[in-house]
DNA sequence: AAACCGTGGTC
DNA sequence: TGACCAAGGTT
């Protein structure tokens, strides 16, 4: 491990660093995001879960709808899973929705919102970053954060080698975060780190001329800003086949609830069968699509079976007017809507 | 440690 | 247009 003496690894003292970030945030940072208005721990929790690996612009309409329907943590705790997943549909990483639901129930049962690092990390969906973010944003108290923005900022400032997820780098980043995070104006400091990463210290074409930390940035001094952080070594993306059934009966469509693990967990889909399933022998293919996930490519075929489908407890019938309010995976929704539009024209 | 988990925006 | 990226967590 490297030195723990801060003065060895960065040119600003911790106090000076925080003052620069805080001052810049006040003048140049973002102040009008929906979750920055009338801040409550619940709003911070919802926004942070939604923002995990998801862009701000994508989250905003989901956040607004969510707060309208579930204004309080008690309202969310009492809701059914169908409605929770329905409001999350299209946002991706659906375990976050289940975690948020469970978090609301746990906090409601607990009687108070947790306000320390350890208690926060016991809550489903809250890891080290989100716990620090809640301390900073909800309570304006000491809460170190390392997310993608902070990782990029620190890797450049200190010319840190390694890529996201490498334990040695992550350890360095968290140690720096703990040392550089002040004990005052913490909300503004944390927001400043994120704003710097999101608006100046960006992945491509960083705006170093506008950066308040330029004079202390090692990557800038080396003229290698865009060489940090090092890219993760990438692997080939495998391709998988999926076979889905199109079964209509009296104007209704057969859908299947997916299990709470795996891809599209807890969502409804067209029933999926194994490629060897006997139904496919007598079925005719009526469509296909290709969908890119982050870690594999799905080549889907949709079949219209000629034989009766064995229904299970996971199956249900849905009229087309119901489809808008149920939780469907984005590519499945797209295909269904296109199919229904075409059959309406017949 | 490394795989798994989604989707849409961007260039 | 494909590859990268985005306020990570869980297993």
TrEMBL record:
Species this protein is from: Alkalimonas mucilaginosa
Catalytic activity, reaction form: Hydrolyzes free adenine bases from 7,8-dihydro-8-oxoguanine:adenine mismatched double-stranded DNA, leaving an apurinic site
Protein name, UniProt field: Adenine DNA glycosylase
Similarity field: Belongs to the Nth/MutY family.
Function field: Adenine glycosylase active on G-A mispairs. MutY also corrects error-prone DNA synthesis past GO lesions which are due to the oxidatively damaged form of guanine: 7,8-dihydro-8-oxoguanine (8-oxo-dGTP).
Enzyme Commission number, as recorded: 3.2.2.31
Coiled coil: none
Record's keyword terms, sorted: 4Fe-4S, DNA damage, DNA repair, Glycosidase, Hydrolase, Iron, Iron-sulfur, Metal-binding
InterPro entries, A to Z: A/G_AdeGlyc_MutY, DNA_glycosylase, Endonuclease-III-like_CS2, Endonuclease3_FeS-loop_motif, HhH-GPD_domain, HhH_base_excis_C, HhH_motif, MIG/MutY
CDD domains given in the database record: ENDO3c, NUDIX_DNA_Glycosylase_C-MutY
Cofactor(s) it depends on: [4Fe-4S] cluster
Cofactor binding annotation: Binds 1 [4Fe-4S] cluster.
Domain HhH-GPD per the UniProt entry, residue ranges: 50-199
Superkingdom of origin organism: Bacteria
């Amino acid at each position: 491990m490297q030195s723990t003496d801060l003065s060895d690894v960065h040119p600003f003292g911790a106090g000076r660093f925080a003052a620069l970030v805080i001052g810049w945030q006040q003048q140049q940072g973002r102040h009008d995001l929906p979750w920055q208005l009338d801040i409550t721990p619940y709003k911070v929790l919802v926004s942070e879960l939604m923002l995990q690996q998801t862009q701000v612009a994508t989250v905003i309409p989901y956040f607004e709808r969510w707060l309208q329907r579930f204004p309080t943590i008690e309202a969310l705790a009492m809701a059914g899973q169908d409605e929770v997943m329905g409001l999350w549909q299209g946002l991706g990483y659906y375990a976050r929705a289940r975690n948020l639901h469970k978090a609301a129930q746990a906090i409601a049962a607990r009687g108070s919102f947790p306000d320390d690092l350890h208690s926060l990390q016991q809550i489903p969906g809250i890891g080290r970053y989100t716990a620090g973010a809640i301390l900073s944003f909800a309570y304006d108290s000491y809460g170190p954060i390392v997310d993608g923005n902070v990782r990029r900022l620190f890797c450049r400032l200190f010319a840190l080698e390694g890529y996201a997820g490498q334990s040695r780098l992550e350890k360095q980043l968290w140690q720096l975060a703990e040392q550089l995070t002040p004990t005052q104006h913490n909300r503004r400091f944390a927001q400043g780190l994120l704003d710097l990463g999101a608006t100046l210290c960006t992945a491509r074409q960083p705006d170093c001329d506008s950066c308040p930390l330029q004079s202390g940035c090692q990557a800038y001094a080396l003229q290698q800003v865009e060489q940090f952080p090092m890219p993760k070594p990438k692997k080939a993306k495998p391709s998988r086949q999926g076979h889905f059934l199109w079964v209509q009966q009296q104007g209704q469509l057969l859908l299947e609830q997916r299990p709470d693990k795996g891809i599209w967990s807890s969502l409804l889909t067209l029933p999926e069968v194994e490629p060897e399933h006997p139904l496919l022998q007598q079925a005719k293919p009526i469509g296909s699509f290709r969908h890119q996930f982050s870690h594999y490519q799905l080549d889907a075929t949709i079949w219209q079976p000629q034989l009766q489908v064995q229904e299970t407890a996971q199956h249900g019938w849905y009229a087309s007017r119901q489809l808008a309010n149920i939780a469907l995976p984005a590519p499945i929704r797209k295909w269904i809507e296109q199919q229904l539009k075409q059959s309406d024209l017949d």
